[in-house]
Amino acid sequence: MLTTLSLSPCIDRRMEFDGFRAGATNRVVASRAEGAGKAVNVALAARALGMPARCVGILPAGGEMVETRLAQAGVPFSFLPAPGVTRVNLKLFDRRAAETTEVSEPCPEAPASLLSRAADAAAQAARESGFLVLTGSLPSGCPDAWYADMLRRVHAEAPGCRCVLDAEGPRFVLGLQARPFLVKPNLHELACAAGHALSTRRAILRAAEGLLDAGAQTAVVSLGAQGALAVDATGAAFAPALDVPVRTTTGAGDAMVAGLLLALAGGAGLTDALRHGTAAAAARCLCAGDAFLHRADFDALLPQTRADSL
Description:
Layout: E1 2-6, E2 10-17, E3 30-36, H1 38-48, E4 53-61, H2 64-73, E5 77-85, E6 87-94, E7 99-103, H3 112-126, E8 131-135, H4 146-157, E9 162-166, H5 169-176, E10 182-183, H6 187-194, H7 201-214, E11 218-222, E12 228-232, E13 235-239, H8 252-265, H9 270-285, H10 295-301, E14 308-309
Parallel strand pairs: 1-4, 1-8, 2-6, 4-5, 8-9, 9-10, 10-11
Antiparallel strand pairs: 2-3, 6-7, 11-12, 12-13, 13-14
Helix pairs in contact: 1-8, 3-4, 4-5, 6-7, 8-9, 9-10
InterPro entries: PfkB_dom, Ribokinase-like, Tagatose/fructose_Pkinase
Pathway: Carbohydrate metabolism; D-tagatose 6-phosphate degradation; D-glyceraldehyde 3-phosphate and glycerone phosphate from D-tagatose 6-phosphate: step 1/2
GO molecular function: ATP binding; phosphofructokinase activity; tagatose-6-phosphate kinase activity
């Protein structure tokens, strides 16, 4: 079982354009709204890939779309009612450039008592899970060390559960100190953690190796159209991205996490796990409808992937 902890669910309002220009009037050619958030996305991707998955966390008012989307995908969920209103994020997709511009609202505040109950729920779920994924923003005012504290609690109370951290900024840096099983920063998040720009593959590799020194057991860096790089105690590998028609980029990194865990749950090594993550990310990029991704796309793409040792 894979459990994701969602403390920042949202409604994604996706708008598509045949060419998007900032500062100009842009005509929407297609739009849709759906429940989302990184933890929700990972659970949806895992379920689509055939992994048992569930989502626990908190949900402010107006978040019925989140519950509906999970239910339609067959993902069990358990949310504690939270104050405030579920935030709405805009995803502006330029079809010509195959690029997404994101406009994200801040997360509502959540009282400490509610966050404590959410931590209790996550710890209980971890006792019954092979993986616990901590990902996404935290509620406004939540301490930066919250994820780190959650990681330490799971290590103590559910030692058989492997924890995954996908966060940014101080939440990521502090979380590393709690020794997560796997971290999956993107290039921007890795550069922020390293404290300097990363312009070459060698620099990216060195920064990723620094994440192991800081406490992570495995680090996978998603590089968008350039692919992904992974390191663990056995070595390092690089996988180029697959060339697919891009219908969305939103959630590709979350799909990569699910693909990685699908392989790791089956005992795969680093290079095979990286291939699975790459195929899952590409399968997500093919989708822009009701499904988060299609298993048939993943199965067709997996043989096309490669991961080379570095």
